[in-house]
Amino acid sequence: MFESVEQVQKRLLDQNYIAGKKIATVVYLATKLNKPVLIEGPAGVGKTELAKVVAAAVGRPLIRLQCYEGLDESKALYEWEYSKQLLYTQMLRDRINDVIAGTKSMKEAAERIASQDDVFFSERFIVARPLLKAITSSEPICLLIDEVDKSDPEFEAFLLEVLSDYTVSVPEVGTIQAKHLPLVFLTSNDAREMTDALKRRCLHLHIDFPSTEEEVRILELKVPGIGERLVHDIVELVQRIRKLDLKKTPSISETLDWARALMVLNADELETELVNDTMNVILKHQGDIAKAQSELNALLQRKAAEKAAGTAQPAPAQPAAPAKKSVLH
Amino acid sequence: MQKKLVEFTNLLRKAGVRVSVAESLDAFSALDQMPLEDRELFKDALRTTMVKRGDEIETYDRLFDLFWSGFHDQLRQEMQQALGGMPEGFDLEQLMEQLRRMLENMDIDLGDLAKALLSMDANQLEKLIQQAGDEAEVQNIRNMLQIGFFSRRMTEQMDMEGAAGELRDLMERLREEGFDEERLRELGELLKAIQEAVRRAVRQYTERELDKQNHDYIERFRRESLLEKSFYNLTEEDLRKLREVVQRLAQKLKSVITMRRKRERRGKFDLKTTMRRNMAHGGIPFELVFKQRKKEKPKLVVLCDISSSVANVSRFFLQFIFSLQDCFTKVRSYVFVAELGEVTQLFRDHEIFDAIDLALDGGDVINPYTRSNFGMAFHTFWRDYLSAIDSRTTVVVIGDARNNYNDPRAWCLRDVHSKAKNVIWINPESPGAWGFGDSVMDKYLPYTDIAEECRNLKQLSRLVDRLIL
């Protein structure tokens, strides 16, 4: 699929995804070693997105399983279609009479029926859920198991079989082996620690919030046409806000939303009023907004000072220097 | 390489990173797929296969640098330094060239080390030093005082003296052969400097080894002791560190509960109802019915003593309660000294540390500067909030039951106990002290389902494990 780590980076970039070397290395290894990747990190750093773009980059369809509390194998793996089975039993009643016709004892009749019972426990009556679909798919696919930390610990246990051998065991039918090895991504927000057994079977990737430079690149890539100045202002403020002790830290996707919102409002730099009006795009708690306010004011003040210094600059270089300093202090 | 990797794996394990055999095998096969020259890639490949916890990444990074690069660079640095120490106008290449020409015509047999020293072959030297390190079993080093001992053992193992002797003989031979006197002097100085450099490198090698062995030791010790440390002695700093541990604990509690709930949710196939329901279809079972048990949402009522006798402890427990409230929807939290007041809303509205400070201050609902009176607090609870308790409620009382010789009014707790599903008492004092002095724990004991001493994190986590909510 990929020849080198650099190629991974390039192909993901083609999909509008900026992958650092760490991310690219893991993706590359996952394709080479046929191992699932467990992606951990705070919400909104592009974990799910990574799975999507990798699927797009290698041109495979993506099957997604969204985990939630109480998700069980009948929702994730397969389910017997009881009503269909029952319906068939009713409709085939005459046939059943044929089968047991001429039997002399109950025992014999029961045995005759028993010899036929795999009709009712065959793949015909199985409703395939995402995991089984991924395993039985006739073309190679990508499987995304999203927010696996939201699922119950016991669900994790039965994921193990799928992840290590790419097989699914249905007791009545037998073990179903994957036709093509799927490329599996699991994402987790670290709401709870995954078991060691699961981690052992996966490659581990920790994605954190991007550095300032990376975030600038992301913004420029994802929000084409945005002014350079605005990008830097946004990123600087967001990076500062992330350092605060907040209930919910703004994610990359929220930064993007904010940038888009500001674009729509035709902003080319951050101003107090504008930011106050749009702050709720990146911060979702009233308390957080109040906290961020002071950060914002400090930033805007500094910018104003820089601006003043900037206008002072065109004056003759030598005498202007001390003047500039005094403005800054 | 394989040996190195196994060694590194062992090192990681020693530092508390869990690396399974399967994972180190993965690391091997990952390295097969990667170009090894790129250090960054190499590091990432090892990390993704072996280190799977966010909090272990930092340890890994430090160990990686310690293990995979450091010595290599250090040795080269030392060699550079040795060269830099040579007098002005010294021309290494010229000297080497002359030396090589000279040696070509001479029949001289040098040992590995002497050869490496003479040719300043850093790779070879590194290999020799590492070999000596293995043979001298430097990995057994345990403390600072052994650095000298192991360094000496290594130089002996390498036979530095022997190599030095060989080189002296060589110089002698060179002189006899009529090697330029000036060059000879330079060579002598150079060799001396390089030998010094190697000795220094050996010492650094030992020091690094000690670092490796001791890595994380201190930190682990601190963490362990944090678990063992009594709540009474926690510092502000400790409390902050505990926050994470407490949250994890609360999370664990939550997952236990959801698991239990889920098991109840699925229900069994209900034959009787199915038949009855499907009579309309002529007995053909179109509609299946499962026995559904009622979902049981756990309700938690927490009463926490915040009197000055348990000030530090309650600070910690409030943290625990705060985290509980984050995890569960139906938690009602109360604090008391003599009066009792509800702080549920307070916890909802504020950040953890603000909330705790406010709660310890009485949270505007009670006066914290009185003497504790459990009887009065329970009575208030019985009078005002008993209705909030039903058969699904677990009541948790946190306090030392030191009642200042007031009336314990144990009957209040008895009523609470008879209505609630469980009453759990968490007492920071050890059972030996219960009932002595002004402790009325013995009076309350009959009306609790679980009463546990809990004075450090370890005990608390054990308690959480045992709690059946």
Biggest sheet architecture of chain B: 6 strands, mixed
Helix content of chain B: 55-70%
**Poorly predicted runs of chain B:** none
Strand order of the largest sheet of chain A: 2-5-8-1-9
Helical stretch count of chain A?
Answer: 16
Q: So how many helices of chain B?
A: 20
N-to-C SSE series of chain A?
HHEHEHEHHHEHEHEEEHEHHHHHH
Total domain units of chain B: 2
- Helix and strand element order of chain B: HHHHHHHHHHHHHEHEEHHHEHEHEH
Oligomer: heterodimer
Give me the CATH fold name of the largest domain in chain B: Rossmann fold
Question: Ends of chain B: how far apart?
Answer: 52 Å
Report on this structure:
The complex is a heterodimer of chains A (329) and B (469). Chain A is α/β, with parallel strands linked by helices and 329 residues long. Chain A folds into three domains: 5-69 and 130-206, P-loop containing nucleotide triphosphate hydrolases (Rossmann fold, 3-Layer(aba) Sandwich); 78-125, no CATH class; 212-312. Helices cover 55% and strands 12% of the residues of chain A. Chain A contains 16 helices and nine strands. Chain A has helices at 5-14, 21-33, 47-58, 73-76, 82-91, 93-100, 106-116, 130-136, 153-165, 196-201, 212-222, 228-243, 252-264, 272-278, 286-312, 317-328, and strands at 37-40, 62-66, 78-80, 126-128, 142-146, 167-170, 174-177, 183-188, 203-206. A five-stranded parallel sheet of chain A has the order 2-5-8-1-9, sandwiched between helices. Chain A has a two-stranded antiparallel sheet with strand order 3-4. In chain A, strands 6-7 form a two-stranded antiparallel sheet. In chain A, a hairpin with a 3-residue loop joins strand 6 (167-170) and strand 7 (174-177). The longest helix of chain A is centred in the C-terminal third of the chain and has 27 residues, at 286-312. Chain A is elongated, with a radius of gyration of 29 Å. Mean pLDDT of chain A is 83; it is low at 313-329. By secondary structure, chain B is α/β, with parallel strands linked by helices. Chain B has two domains: 53-215; 233-267 and 297-466, Rossmann fold (3-Layer(aba) Sandwich). Helices cover 60% and strands 7% of the residues of chain B. Chain B has 20 helices and six strands. Chain B has helices at residues 2-14, 21-32, 39-50, 57-84, 92-104, 112-119, 122-135, 147-158, 160-176, 181-214, 217-228, 236-266, 271-277, 311-327, 344-349, 352-360, 374-385, 410-419, 441-444, 457-466; strands at residues 299-305, 331-336, 340-342, 393-398, 422-427, 450-453. In chain B, helix 18 links the parallel strand 4 and strand 5. In chain B, helix 9 (160-176) runs antiparallel to helix 10 (181-214). The radius of gyration of chain B is 36 Å and the shape is elongated. Classes of the chains: A alpha/beta (329), B alpha/beta (469). At the A-B interface, helix 2, helix 5, helix 10 and strand 9 of A face helix 2, helix 3 and helix 12 of B.
